[in-house]
Amino acid sequence: MTTIPPLGAPAALNISAGITPSPLLKYMVVPYSFPLRFRPILVLARLCRKIAERAREITTVCAEIRFNGPVFAALDQVARPQLLAGLAVLVGLVTATWLRSAAPEWSPDLFTWPMAASLLCAPVVFPWYLLWLLPFLTSASTLLIILWTVSIIPTYVMWHLCTLGRPWGSLPGWVMLPEYGRVAGASAILALRRITRSAASNAQRTSRVKATAPHAILVFRNLCASSNTTFISFH
User: CA distances (Å), 138 to each of 111, 143, 212, 235, in order?
Assistant: First the structure.
């Protein structure tokens, strides 16, 4: 059975985090009458119970709820939902590792792209999930994610369709295609631009080499001629 998430629901079901951040202090409050030496055990038991509850929620999300997750929906036919949820987390970890190895210095990209990669592979991608990325969108390298935060806005139409009597389910194609199509198109443009710049840079470097080659040959000939003259004069 599929339930309709409220419009103002918190991002508690985000597969990249699993739970809504909540203060840990309320789990660490122990009655004063409880023996001091057993208080850490009680706190640990409470935390473990809360983690187990959130794990069950994540399992429910993976098994039943689908919204705006094209990658998860495409792979859902060939793999178990729990396995795909682990794959989403793995994609984020691999992205973070690759970015860390490529750019050892600290950068907001080290946080933005791994989270975006996990969200892209998640079963549920509500618009407000991308709000978590906004504090890290500080450079031009995150242009695609900035575009995604704008192109995802039309997904709110699902709540309007539900008020008209349509059952909760997958988004219409005329919503998802522009959302991800804009991002894919911008990715292709940026990739083509980078390839063009690289080709132009290589061509310019080659032309410089060709331009300096005759001068180098002339210098080499002059050196050879001067060495021959010196040899003849010596004899």
Answer: 11, 9, 42, 74
pLDDT digits (tens, 9 = 90+) for 146-203: 999 999 999 999 999 999 988 887 888 899 999 999 999 999 999 898 888 877 777 6
Mean pLDDT for 37-61 is 71
- What confidence score (pLDDT) does residue 48 get? 77
